[in-house]
């Protein structure tokens, strides 16, 4: 059974803290993605990676960075958390190519920054 | 740039009735793929169905079918014989079909509630 796991379901951090969100997939997928989900806005892409040590900015990269040192792991980093980064964060992975190649999602991390 | 529009923020439907969730899109890509995902209250996104822009027939997967009208740029999801377990958020998404461009663009979603 394919699986994407995220390190925490719920996280509460203080303003200014450095925050790490971890994502691990066991499907040997090349592509990995980080989204944030906010009510009324749907899912918005923060960063994605199509290979180890490769990354590209998505639609809303400001205030975030990522790290991909191993194929199965993709980390999202909030360098200095702010209250407007309170959100649901979803990680996904997929294999490359044309056709379906749907993205598989983790359960999400609900982050609250106080 | 790609854009997905879902105009129904919420819907209430009686159990066992059919449901149509609307999705319109805009893109300049000559070929593309359209996806529907379900997000139950647990939070995990579940892939439901896919339609390629050049597919001749509308996609079907069990109780799910996709009413694809290319000229109208619409890709509505139809759920037949709705069940209580269908209560969830539903997202329409699209992606260019060219290799190497794997980014999905999502709509804002529709919250479906099935009434017993």
Q: Which short descriptors sum up this protein?
A:
heterodimer; A: 114 residues; mainly beta; 7-stranded mixed β-sheet; B: 116 residues; 12 strands; 0% helix; 52% strand
Description of the molecule:
The complex is a heterodimer of chains A (114) and B (116). By secondary structure, chain A is mainly beta. Chain A is built from no helices and eleven strands. In chain A, the strands form two sheets. In chain A, strands 2, 4, 5, 6, 9, 10 and 11 form a seven-stranded mixed beta sheet that branches. In chain A, strand 5 (42-49) and strand 6 (56-57) form a beta hairpin. Chain A is globular. The mean pLDDT of chain A is 94. Chain B is an all-beta fold. Chain B is built from no helices and twelve strands. In chain B, the strands form three sheets. In chain B, strands 2, 5, 6, 10, 11 and 12 form a six-stranded mixed beta sheet that branches.
Tally of separate helices of chain B: 0
Q: Strand percentage of chain B, roughly?
A: over 45%
Radius of gyration of chain B: 14 Å
Mean pLDDT level of chain A: 94
Rg of chain A, Å, rounded = 13 Å
Oligomer: heterodimer
**Biggest beta sheet attributes of chain B:** 6 strands, mixed
Query: What is the tally of beta strands of chain A?
Result: 11
Order of helices and strands of chain B: EEEEEEEEEEEE
Terminal Cα span of chain B: 41 Å
**C-alpha geometry of chain B:** globular
Tell me the distance between the termini of chain A. 37 Å
Instruction: Tell me the strand percentage band of chain A.
Output: over 45%
Low-pLDDT residue intervals, each spanning 5 or more residues of chain B: none
H/E series of chain A = EEEEEEEEEEE
Number of strands of chain B: 12
